[in-house]
Amino acid sequence: xxxxxxxxxxxxxxxxxxxxxxxxxxxxxxxxxxxxxxxxxxxxxxxxxxxxxxxxxxxxxxxxxxxxxxxxxxxxxxxxxxxxxxxxxxxxxxxxxxxxxxxxxxxxxxxxxxxxxxxxxxxxxxxxxxxxxxxxxxxxxxxxxxxxxxxxxxxxxxxxxxxxxxxxxxxxxxxxxxxxxxxxxxxxxxxxxxxxxxxxxxxxxxxxxxxxxxxxxxxxxxxxxxxxxxxxxxxxxxxxxxxxxxx
Length: 247
Ligand code: ADP
Fold this sequence. Notes:
It comes from Methylocella tundrae. One of its GO terms (molecular function) is ATP binding. Keywords: ATP-binding, Nucleotide-binding, Transport. The chain starts with 7 loop residues before the first strand and ends with a helix. With 247 residues, it is an alpha/beta fold. Helix content is 33%, strand content 24%. It has a domain at 93-166. The structure holds adenosine-5'-diphosphate.
């Protein structure tokens, strides 16, 4: 298989902070419609990998090809435009707006002459908001102010705010942290549904959730890949048990 068959091809990726290689000659490949989970001990480089892909951190060397477009040369906003969405651990939703309004302002407006705050209330936007609200289990909460949502619902809302932009790759940092068991199960259901049109990379510590969602797991340790494969293989790998799962 050549690099061009993958949605994302990361090759020889390295970033040094004052000589310390947080990510060290890393290569991995993500397929279309794949859920990839990155696990590993604290400080392994997981967050830095997502920061590099979304352009928040610039690579020292190596390449990140997304649909064959080199991302390391692009700015953060260009990477979003190329189709990469990133959700951080803390939801960045607008507390004083309703669920509907939060989704509506995230709808890609292109270069609107009315500026970023001009709301488009046309039918296409309303229809898309409704569709996304259903996907994130909030269709009966559309008129609710975001600060009245539960912690889990806020996480879903932020996922919805990214989905409405229709990214080809969605990256999530510990999406089920602090969620109840039922919310975690629904989040797994949500991820399996949305990969019909895209791939997802998830950083996660909750192994039950990892088992529910991962097509493939990449285990990072000291900025490098310790092991990679399906969860059944990963959880019995003695090196993974030693540095991570056994703790
Ligand atoms: P993880 O997400 O796996 O816990 P991180 O990617 O956050 O790990 O961090 C990997 C290593 O890189 C850590 O040792 C961290 O201290 C270091 N690091 C991350 N970002 C920076 C930065 N901007 N400057 C210096 N060191 C950093």
